[in-house]
Design a protein that fits this description.
The protein is mostly helical. It has one domain (29-286). It contains twelve helices and no strands. The longest helix is centred in the middle third of the chain and has 28 residues, at 126-153. The radius of gyration is 25 Å and the shape is elongated.
Length: 289
């Protein structure tokens, strides 16, 4: 009697291991950022009402604050409230509109589109950088609307073109820095609604408790100290200096008011240095299984 041995089962092929993704070079990272910036701008093109906070709102705020507050605010040392207010209106509009970064990122995280991005060979922080650059472009639009409306109602900068451009540029740098802080807010928020609500609670007082719309000399001592050290006050004071407009805060002895340009740059650089790495870390944690 012969024994027949059953043939040994064929060894199953080993499951192929995923190839490690090589780090992308500078050119590829730049392309990723350009593509994602374009994606965010394309969304605006398809739904122009997203720009209402940087087009309609600046016009309304400029008209309301100049013609309502302007009738009751007396500037120390004299001067036109229209000339005084434009820099402050730039500060208020750019500060409050920066919450769009938080809302946009929170919406993307909730919609599942970030999960699709994770399946692509792309530089992961490009999502954050693309969003911040798209929001910087909308900040340029906001600045243009505030400036154009100001010129229509009688605002006149008393400085050269280069100095006026520097006044706008220092605001745009600060707005870009704020967008990274709002990116962190978008990472920790569970929904776009909560991101918008929390952002408004943080950013609106930041814009109002400052020298943006009224001089700080007659504020209570504690509130005046907060306002004088508020980064919004430093940026507004620096911008008024560049514009050559009435600038009562230069007589205040607080360091940020005496060195407004330097203080503005330090605030902007510090915000980017703190919140850009933090936003990247939060994004990696939020998008890691």
């Amino acid at each position: 009697m012969s024994l027949t041995t059953a043939p040994a089962p064929a060894a199953s092929p080993a499951t192929p291991r995923a190839r490690p993704t090589r780090s992308r070079g500078a050119t590829q990272r730049f392309r990723d950022v350009v593509v994602l910036t374009g994606r965010n701008l394309l969304h605006i093109k398809r739904e122009p009402l997203q720009l209402s906070d940087v087009t309609v709102q600046p016009v309304l705020f400029t008209l309301l604050f100049i013609y309502v507050f302007g009738s009751g605010v007396v500037l120390p040392g004299g001067g036109s409230y229209k000339d005084f207010a434009i820099a402050g209106l730039l500060a208020m509009n750019l500060t409050t509109s920066s919450m769009g970064t938080a809302v946009g990122l929170s919406s993307d995280l909730g919609s599942g589109v970030i999960d699709r991005f994770r399946t692509l060979s792309m530089w992961r922080p490009a999502v954050l950088v693309g969003r911040s650059l798209a929001d910087l472009m909308t900040a340029v639009i906001c600045s243009a609307f505030v400036g154009a409306t100001g010129l229509l109602v009688g605002w006149r900068p008393d400085a050269g073109v280069a100095s006026v451009a520097a006044g706008f540029a220092i605001f745009l740098l600060f707005s870009y820095a704020l967008s990274w802080g709002c990116a962190c807010l978008g990472m920790v928020s569970k929904s776009a609604e909560s991101a918008q609500g929390i952002g408004l609670v943080i950013l609106f007082p930041l814009a109002i408790v400052s020298n943006a719309l009224v001089p700080t000399e007659h504020m209570p001592v504690v509130l005046r100290t907060i306002a004088d050290w508020n980064p919004v006050s430093a940026v507004t004071t620096a911008s008024r200096k560049f514009f050559g407009n009435p600038n009562p805060s230069v007589t205040i002895h607080a360091w940020p008011m005496q060195h407004a340009v330097l203080a503005s740059l330090l605030w902007s650089v510090a915000l980017i240095a703190i919140f850009a790495p933090l936003a990247t870390a939060l994004y990696r944690r939020r998008t890691t299984d």
